[in-house]
Amino acid sequence: MTSAEPIKVAIAILHSKQNFLLQLRDEIPTILYPGHWALFGGHIEPGELPEQAVQRELQEEIGFVPAELRLLDCYDDQQVMRYVFCGTLEVGLEQLCLGEGLDMGLATIDEIQAGERFSPKTGRFHPLGIPHRQILLNYIKTIR
Prior knowledge:
The protein is α+β, with helices and mostly antiparallel strands. It is built from 3 helices and 9 strands, in the order ββββαβββαββα. The protein has a single domain (7-143), classed as Nucleoside Triphosphate Pyrophosphohydrolase (Alpha-Beta Complex), CATH 3.90.79. Strands 1, 2, 3, 4, 5, 6 and 7 form a 7-stranded mixed beta sheet that branches. It has a two-stranded antiparallel sheet with strand order 8-9. The relative contact order is 0.25. Residues 4-141 form the Nudix hydrolase domain.
């Protein structure tokens, strides 16, 4: 018996100085980390390269793709293989159009370390998705 191949996704750390763009995921019980803050991105379609997937997903989810995205690392667990890209958020939040999720916002390093962030749209705190928080914490170590 063989185990199922992990889902492949491409996600992006988009930063503006020391703040990081996060998406509050929909509260749909069938998705991973419903109601959690996470990085923008999504599934890699068959025949699609991770670089193409992250650009497509960012365009669909926020209507913005940075001029430069670089592959940082690959994180995998039993469920998901995450291709993690990094780029600069060159526009203000008001120029982004949230196409998926409940909310979006710029998280501070303190919020990432605390593992939760307030959403003005829901009026409550939500946790950061475990793998997304760890990816951000690892990245923060490299920029300090």
